[in-house]
Amino acid sequence: MTASGGGGGGTNDGAATNGGDRWDQLLTSYNVKQLLDSVDAFLFDCDGVIWRGDVLIDGVSETLDFLRSLGKKLVFVTNNSTKSRKQYSQKFHSLGIIVSEDEIFSSSFAAAMYLKVNNFSEEKKVYVIGGEGILDELKLAGYTGLGGPDDGKKTVELKPNCLFDHDKNVGAVVVGLDPNINYYKLQYGTLCIRENPGCLFIATNRDSVGHMTNLQEWPGAGCMVAAICGSTEKEPIVVGKPSTFMMNFLLQKFNISTSRMCMVGDRLDTDILFGQNAGCTTLLVLSGVTNASALEDPSRKIRPDYYTNKVSDLKRLFLNDSQQV
Amino acid sequence: MTASGGGGGGTNDGAATNGGDRWDQLLTSYNVKQLLDSVDAFLFDCDGVIWRGDVLIDGVSETLDFLRSLGKKLVFVTNNSTKSRKQYSQKFHSLGIIVSEDEIFSSSFAAAMYLKVNNFSEEKKVYVIGGEGILDELKLAGYTGLGGPDDGKKTVELKPNCLFDHDKNVGAVVVGLDPNINYYKLQYGTLCIRENPGCLFIATNRDSVGHMTNLQEWPGAGCMVAAICGSTEKEPIVVGKPSTFMMNFLLQKFNISTSRMCMVGDRLDTDILFGQNAGCTTLLVLSGVTNASALEDPSRKIRPDYYTNKVSDLKRLFLNDSQQV
Hints:
The structure is a homodimer. By secondary structure, chain A is an alpha/beta fold. The first copy, chain A, has helices at residues 31-38, 60-69, 85-94, 107-117, 132-140, 183-195, 221-232, 245-253, 268-278, 292-295, 313-324; strands at residues 25-26, 41-44, 51-52, 55-56, 73-78, 104-106, 125-129, 144-147, 170-175, 200-203, 209-210, 218-219, 237-238, 261-265, 281-285, 306-308. The longest helix of chain A has 13 residues, at 183-195. The N and C termini of chain A lie close together (12 Å).
């Protein structure tokens, strides 16, 4: 029997909160085997699942190796837009995990791909409220990005007869997590969206907070996106989770039905909803934004198929079960 | 006949957009007299009505003198929280208009008064995302404010094992227009609201944009307030227009029924809605955020009783009428 509770018997003892329902099941040494048997690819969120800030969550590396040894495909689907796929691959390597760029689907990449599949003209420019990752992905897709970290130190002076000028050729504003947010960027993005005809307003994601450092949560892209909603009175096109826009690219890459995929994440309103929207099995981990008491909230509408403390439970529970057999 | 159109005859030629309805009436040399006869106090918004940025709108000074000469009370109800009532009085003086502090109802004052009437303990502190005006009004009301302009130059570093600390004794976060908005302030306000039990989230107002300079609009408090909504997933208590919270103080000061008041403003969703919520006559001026084409939008729900180009039309149309008689 494992510390996570649940039974190893023939009945579904793991369905913790709602009797016979097939959701909100605590992952146990019994049902983990069912889960692993039913899935060919695991889609992992990163912040709060693989790492917190720059610190790897305990047991992740061994668990990813274990899943690969079972022949499972691994994919990393992150709403964090501050890095490009290349930068994410480097971050994985620095933490001792080998992940190729092709296995990473970041919302920075999704923003660039959204423009691409919608035939956004390369003659137009893209203003970025967010990190280097978005600018890098835009460049790889053939687009000219403005803003980003470069505008983080710019200031404005509200003086009479001063006119804040913006590029009339900006056809899209991409907003993601931006720790260098300032009034200059807010005015620039607002002017483009309000005054450039047809200018798109694209949000990488709307996560309210995230584990930008290992010890605590910080305002996420949802903060900056909401700020631009507030000033423009417009709603964005969201390309990150829970939007399934990224799933199209993932399906192009891997020839696996979404019903044979499991989305593993720490957020109900992005990760789990994304998995459900796409038709995947879903596994909530409690190592990030969502804590155990959130599961007890009666007003909660989004319910994962399974939940557990952390990713490494997948290996631990499976091996416990094997040892028992 | 005046350049603003409309008729001087006995029929209601000025009802421009909807025939016989009593709203959306273009102010004319005919109906201006009815308006002036029916009103004992004029409530003016400031940005986009009295001035744009630091530049007085043409003819305002003479028109205020004219209204005073008719015995009308004048009150200035502004959502701009960057200044205290004292600072507003000084701004009026610097523009050649004598207005006392008692005639000014700013949302900075409203925020402090909200705490006062709700018996917010003076032992607790208030974190401010916004200008000096809020801190000044809090101090006058006996409260200790933190943040504001002082935190405008603070930066954060998202380093492993660093803990961003906040004062656990903060019992309210007040958010207003903040041209020095940064990630430090966003994290501070977010932590207080999310982690300090019972911490209030107060918005001075939610104006999307405003004439922070005379030549163009800039993101308003609605931008910063939305940012904190985005990170906290909470909705604020709004004390500025269109909330009628400030009206209670105004009624205490002036013994005039709201049906004998006229609210003059440039925003439908704050000024005109405030006037309507309070039972005042409403006059929209097109010298600020709302332009003539916005009046033609069929989805528009908020309709003023009257509209005109600018405040000075009140005097010009009245005198034209008198000259014709």
